[in-house]
Design brief:
This is SSAP RNA binding domain-containing protein. The protein is of the alpha+beta class. The chain is built from nine helices and eight strands. Among the domains are: 107 residues, Enolase-like, domain 1 (2-Layer Sandwich); 48 residues.
Length: 248
């Protein structure tokens, strides 16, 4: 697994540019050896997710939102099920996330067991299935999955929710356009207040801050997939390399 490395942040970047740099750094982390597959879904351990996130943002905090009426960490509706909520706060920015309590078949669980009917194509008839009542174990497990999903709003493991197994190399994308797929996803995911004016503002700012060839190489290694898969970004690195050579 590629562990998070603190990106170099120049002093003159805006707050949005700084967030964009950190978002890309978190998004580019390959967490494939820390995930598990179950029922065709991919799960990332909350402990590994939180460890990597704290390496990026040591002051980050999270909160499990409790029902003010019961002081319990879930909200239950007898008709539609149980929902949990978390919040993650980083440097004045807070993202909220929610997740329903579900069973192994991804059916919503409730405080009491219930049945539902599905069509069995082999028996060629409708059969009845049961969803057991939720337990505190189910609720606790959902809370921690909700926290991992919450961290993805800041970039960590977001590609998992986009249906990818690893951060994708844009050169393999047959639908590639002038805007790399990763940047498109980021633009759709980050709140409007966090978006940089220039789609490459974060990486441009980091390039300008590189004082020598070694720093440039470190930045390249951190964004290798993105650089190798996009000619525009690669040209920016080449330009900065030439500038540093002239200045030496």
């Amino acid at each position: 697994m590629c562990k998070f490395q603190q990106p170099q942040i120049p002093a003159n970047v805006t707050a949005d540019e700084r967030r964009a740099i950190y978002f890309d750094a978190l998004y580019s982390l390959d967490l494939s050896d820390k995930v598990e597959k179950y029922n065709d879904l991919t799960y990332l351990s909350w402990a590994n997710a939180w460890a990597e996130f704290k390496r990026c943002y040591p002051s980050a905090t999270y909160r499990i939102i409790k029902n003010p009426e019961t002081n319990l960490p879930y909200f239950a509706d007898p008709c539609i099920g149980i929902m949990v909520y978390t919040e993650v706060e980083v440097e004045g920015i807070t993202h909220e996330m929610w997740l329903p309590v579900m069973n192994a078949s991804n059916k919503a669980m409730k405080l009491e067991a219930y049945t539902y009917s599905v069509y069995d194509k082999f028996k060629k008839q409708h059969v009845e299935k049961t969803v057991e009542a939720a337990t505190m174990f189910d609720i606790n497990k959902t809370i921690m999955r909700c926290l991992v999903k919450n961290l993805a709003m800041f970039g960590l493991g977001l590609y998992i929710y986009a249906g990818e197994d690893v951060p994708e190399n844009d050169s393999t994308d047959t639908q590639q356009t002038d805007s790399p797929k990763k940047t498109i996803r980021r633009a759709k995911t980050i709140s409007q207040a966090q978006q940089a004016t220039d789609k490459y503002a974060g990486i441009k700012a980091a390039l300008k801050a590189c004082p020598d060839q070694q720093s440039l190489m470190n930045l390249y290694q951190q964004h290798k997939n993105e650089v190798d898969g996009n000619s525009e970004i690669k040209a920016l690195f080449t330009e900065r390399k030439l500038q540093l050579q002239k200045a030496a």
